[in-house]
Amino acid sequence: MSTSATQVLFDAPGPKGRRRILLLSVLSVVAILALLAGALWQFQSNGQLDPGKWIVYLRVDYLAFLGQGLWGTLKVTALAAVVAFPLGLLLALARLSRFRVLSTLAAVWIEFYRGIPMLLVVYAFLLALPAFGVTFPRFWMLVIPMILVSSATTAEVFRAGINAVDRGQHEAAAAIGLSRRDAMTSVILPQAVRLVLPSLILALVTLLKDSTLGYVVSYNELQFQGKTLVSITRYLVQTYLVVSVIYIVINFLLTRIALALDARMKARAAAG
């Protein structure tokens, strides 16, 4: 968006406005620090900051126990992403297809799985399907619902990216004699993927969070292991804070990878 367009939509704050923004920012920071200080004081008063309640998480057996849960989380997340993202792309292309039946079927799939919580899909694999004699291992009772739901949301991400590519790119591809399929695979999709890369990383983060539903099917992912560890140590606050830090670190690493990939793709586009 150009500077002039931005000025039309949003008035630049004047001196009073800037002072007001600065004051609100300072007050917000002070309020957050006060809340953190209050929480730490409360923890200290209840003995939650006792070093003995934290040092146990440096024990090799506890670290290995959480490591097993982390490995389980990464396995289901990676497998779900590897299947759901290509499936989402195929669904997006099907929904954009000129064949009405194919487009309708893709739209039904997308809207159905976008409209229901993944927890209900997990319960369907845990309770409903076994009632009809259809059973799956615990691993697949988590992975398949993740794939089904994520493929629907990812399909809309890809469809938005394809529609966001400038119409002139389609016309330029047609002008040099490319078929609609060749234009899509060689010209449109590479640009669309670059446009939606941040959204794909967000979808990956969502899959990572969805893996916590493994506790429903008693799959040994990170949160389930943390819950089990609470029953062993009786340290609920400490255990879930440690687990939360692990999730935050993973999400931070995913964000850094996304930024690196985005920078590389932009560099290649500029060089080309």
The SS-based structural class is mainly alpha
- Show unreliable segments: 1-10
What name does CATH use for the topology of the largest domain?
MetI-like fold
Distance between the termini: 24 Å
Shape: globular
- The percent of residues in helical segments reads over 70%
The CATH level-2 architecture of the largest domain is identified as Orthogonal Bundle
Summed up, the helix count is: 10
Could you say how many structural domains there are in total?
2
Helix-strand topology string: HHHHHHHHHH
Q: What is the percentage of strand-forming residues?
A: under 5%
| Count of distinct strands | 0
Q: Any idea of the CATH class of the largest domain?
A: Mainly Alpha
- Describe the biggest sheet? none
CATH homologous group name of the largest domain: MetI-like
**Overall pLDDT confidence:** 85
Radius of gyration: 24 Å
Written overview of the protein:
Helices cover 81% and strands 0% of the residues. It is mostly helical and 272 residues long. The chain has 2 domains: 43 residues; 220 residues, MetI-like fold. Helix 3 crosses helix 6 and helix 7 runs antiparallel to helix 8. The longest helix has 36 residues. 23% of the residues are buried. The N terminus is likely disordered.
Give me the secondary-structure topology:
Blueprint: H1 3-9, H2 15-45, H3 60-95, H4 100-115, H5 118-131, H6 138-164, H7 167-175, H8 180-210, H9 222-233, H10 236-271
Summarize this structure as a short list of keywords or feature phrases.
272 residues, mainly alpha, MetI-like fold, 10 helices, 81% helix
